[in-house]
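I have a small job for you when you get a moment. Would you make up a two-line entry for one protein for me to read? No commentary is needed, just the two lines. Write everything out right here, beneath this request.
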Amino acid sequence: MADPAALDIGPDPTLLLMDDDEPFLRRLARAMEKRGFDVKTALSVAEGTAIVEGGAPAYAVLDLRLEDGNGLDVVEKLREKRPDSRIVVLTGYGAIATAVAAVKFGATDYLSKPADANDITNALLAGEEDKPPPPENPMSADRVRWEHIQRVFELCDRNVSETARRLNMHRRTLQRILAKRSPR
């Protein structure tokens, strides 16, 4: 765990955490508070937008996909209200296209889940020229494959036959993969 005294958060420690996974959000909020951030949490795009409207935070960690919309909407709103904010976009569906979109909308960095508090803190506090260190626990190749399959499945509106066709995979093979738990 990072030593809070060693972190250079700056004069404004305000941090918005937005994710629809409530247990993850609570754990991350506690971890970031221990690091010296003044945390506000939101479970939806509407809540995140309301927090930004009420006073734009210096830092934000935003989930990309939420029940009521897209985290990129909050990135845009935050950039309008506070151009100097440091924004990290988190998602369970890591892909180059979404990373590029997040950065174009104004995100400072982009991390795939599962990301821990140290990875997030490093990304938030990295300087413009600094590259954050590689993650301590990167996703395994099996996990990356599983995430990609899940993403395509969601984009095909959970249609197994269409997903199998697009992935050039037999439908039964895809069904077996979808029935299993996600790899670590």
